[in-house]
Inverse folding.
């Protein structure tokens, strides 16, 4: 593929996403009180969850400090404080699920109704397959792709928002608890301020670099896998429809050959997907084991020198893991991002096909109605 | 009328099999069908297609066409007037047997090339599978 074709494909993808967003954003632009309430509600829940996370981090410190002092009274107080924290955290998690799924359901309903209206209007569903390319399997696009395309953005956006706030909040914890450290190099003493913050940035950068190196093809491979799965379904559907319209017939051998080719493309992308997952698992699993230990190791010199209590050590380690987890947003959501992109592309392709048909329906001299 | 099928993947071993099948067809006046099974795409090629938005089906079809055209040229050079071309997708052994059955072939010619040392050791080569399962005479060209 030439560079020009490559650029054209990128422009094409952007065009598809723009078309998807044009219809999908209607729900959020509707200025209905219910939609505004949902958006604010979800943001407030994220903020409250972060607050509880910070309180749990502080609780961690007081609990382990009490443990180090063998202070039974303080331990009992910490245990009592833990109960409401767990209750609030659990309630917030459940509330978050309700909020997210309610928003997803409402958005899905709005977009599905919009596409169904356009698809059924003037019996376009009858002409779409024969007249416009790129509209294969519209039922699947309406039933499944719209669901995926409206589910993922809410989860991804909230996770992203939460990750940024978590990183900011726990950066300050790391800065305050970790403080500075003195290192002796060639007889000279060098003071590194906020060394845990620097540590988490360096560690996360290394892990992210590894992940990008090992898994940089993952999103495009998932996207291609989803696309070929859809093409496989569309090919089988097309043959079924042929059976219902006896005037058009493909030979059995050609049908078999086409379906085998489609299956083969699915299996080849699946094989590549498997290898991409194997590669990224090497990094993610190593990170899962290394991150907390690395945090402890960074804190050990200050703990051994007496400059850090056991509670501060566990608090810093937990904050380190939280920040590191926040940095991993992209890596953790690679697969969902790719699933969303391919579903949004397929919904957009259907919308563009309907737009094209709509333009053909308009009498000469009349500008086609603006795509909604 | 005798029908000979030769299966090729474009490798040197398969080219020798095409030559042998063409000579045999010419000498006996049998019809010759050249077939190949597509789908052998490396991970590197897949990743290249993924990052450049390439079409995998088209890439496989074009690879299959290239192999068949090359084999056809060889057969024509050996004196076979118009060899028939067939292709299939997926498991090589099963697809070749399907074509042998649908073409009602009397004779199948294949190269000895295995799937690689380890895979060949674990699963056996395509030629071994064909020699035991094909419903016709099988000639394995070394």
């Amino acid at each position: 593929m030439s560079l020009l074709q490559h650029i054209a494909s990128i422009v094409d993808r952007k065009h598809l996403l723009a078309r998807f967003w044009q219809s999908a954003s209607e729900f959020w632009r509707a200025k209905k009180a219910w939609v505004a309430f949902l958006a604010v509600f979800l943001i407030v829940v994220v903020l409250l969850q972060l607050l509880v996370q910070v309180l749990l981090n502080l609780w961690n410190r007081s609990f382990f400090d009490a443990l180090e002092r063998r202070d039974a009274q303080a331990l009992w107080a910490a245990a009592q404080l833990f109960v409401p924290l767990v209750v609030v955290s659990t309630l917030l998690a459940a509330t978050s699920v309700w909020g997210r799924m309610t928003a997803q359901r409402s958005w899905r309903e709005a977009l599905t109704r919009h596409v169904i209206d356009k698809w059924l209007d003037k019996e376009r569903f009858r002409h779409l397959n024969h007249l416009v390319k790129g509209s294969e399997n519209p039922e699947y696009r309406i039933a499944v792709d719209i669901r995926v395309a409206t589910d993922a953005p809410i989860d991804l956006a909230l996770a992203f928002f939460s990750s940024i706030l978590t990183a900011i909040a726990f950066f300050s914890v790391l800065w305050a608890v970790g403080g500075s450290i003195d290192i002796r190099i060639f007889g000279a003493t060098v003071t590194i301020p906020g060394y845990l913050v620097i540590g988490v940035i360096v560690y996360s950068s290394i892990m992210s670099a590894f992940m990008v190196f090992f898994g940089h093809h993952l999103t495009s491979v998932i996207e291609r896998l989803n696309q070929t799965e859809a093409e496989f379904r569309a090919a089988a559907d097309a043959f079924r429809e042929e059976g219902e319209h006896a005037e058009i017939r493909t030979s059995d051998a050609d049908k078999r050959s086409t379906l085998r080719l489609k299956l083969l493309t699915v299996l080849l992308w699946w094989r590549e997907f498997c290898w991409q997952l194997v590669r990224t698992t090497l990094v993610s699993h190593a990170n899962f084991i290394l991150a907390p230990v690395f945090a402890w190791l960074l804190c050990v010199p200050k703990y051994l020198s007496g400059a850090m209590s056991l509670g501060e050590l566990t608090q810093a380690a937990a904050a380190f893991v939280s920040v590191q987890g926040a940095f991993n947003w992209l890596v953790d959501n690679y697969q969902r991002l790719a699933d969303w992109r391919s579903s949004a592309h397929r919904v957009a392709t259907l919308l563009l096909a309907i737009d094209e048909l709509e333009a053909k329906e308009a009498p000469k001299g009349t500008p086609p109605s603006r795509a909604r | 009328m005798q029908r000979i099928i030769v299966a090729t993947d474009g490798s040197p071993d398969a080219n020798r099999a095409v030559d042998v099948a063409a000579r045999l067809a010419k000498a006996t006046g049998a019809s010759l069908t050249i077939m190949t099974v597509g789908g052998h795409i490396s991970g590197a090629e897949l990743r290249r297609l993924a990052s450049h938005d390439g079409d995998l089906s088209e890439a496989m079809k074009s690879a299959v066409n290239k192999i068949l055209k090359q084999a056809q040229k060889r057969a024509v050079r050996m004196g076979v007037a118009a060899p028939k071309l067939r292709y299939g997708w997926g498991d090589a052994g099963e697809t070749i047997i399907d074509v042998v059955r649908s073409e009602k072939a009397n004779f199948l010619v294949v190269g000895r090339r295995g799937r690689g040392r380890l895979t060949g050791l674990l699963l056996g080569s395509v030629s071994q599978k064909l020699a035991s399962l094909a419903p016709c005479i099988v000639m394995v060209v070394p």
Notes: The longest strand of chain B covers residues 31-38. Chain B touches chain A at residues 38-39, 41, 43, 46-47, 49-54, 56-57, 60-61, 87-90, 95, 102 (CB under 8 Å).
